[in-house]
TrEMBL record:
It comes from the Bacteria. Transmembrane segments: none annotated. InterPro entries: Glyas_Bleomycin-R_OHBP_Dase (IPR029068), Glyoxalase_6 (IPR041581), VOC_core (IPR037523). This is VOC family protein. It comes from Nonomuraea diastatica. Residues 6-133 form the VOC domain.
Length: 133
């Protein structure tokens, strides 16, 4: 019998973990639960932050970890370009209001939208995330 495994968080690589964590904290209405500064021989902007859902909400936490050699992804994917290896899916009750809020927080609506009831957005580092009904 396999051991019990439980997904607790998703970590996003970024050249600016504090700024990106603040973006998602504002977007989602979450708070930073944990923060670590740069490690030995890391630049000042390095570090790691963790956002957790508010009390009473379920779901994994989201971490933001410094990535020294970060390359901004291209979406949709293109041959030879840095592609997004994952994205966050965020359920909403009003798609247009959610898009408007995401833009006010600093996101950009992707030029290509493959589905009518989903909006692909790009965070300040270019990671795609989806807002869906």
């Amino acid at each position: 019998m396999p051991p019990r495994l439980q997904l607790t968080s998703v970590t996003v690589g970024t050249p600016q973990p504090r700024e990106l964590a603040r973006f998602y904290a504002r977007l989602l209405g979450w708070q930073v639960a944990e923060e670590e500064g740069p490690g030995v021989d890391e630049p000042e902007q390095a570090g790691w932050l963790l956002l957790r859902p508010p009390a009473g909400e379920s779901g994994p936490s989201v971490g933001f970890e410094y990535e020294r050699s970060y390359a901004r992804p291209v979406w949709p994917s293109e041959p030879g370009a840095q592609n997004a290896s994952q994205h966050l899916d965020i359920k909403v009750d009003d798609l247009s209001a959610a898009v408007e809020w995401a833009v006010a927080c600093g996101a950009v609506e992707a030029a290509y939208q493959p589905q009518e009831d989903v909006r692909v957005m790009l965070d300040p580092d270019g990671h795609p995330f989806c807002l869906f009904l």
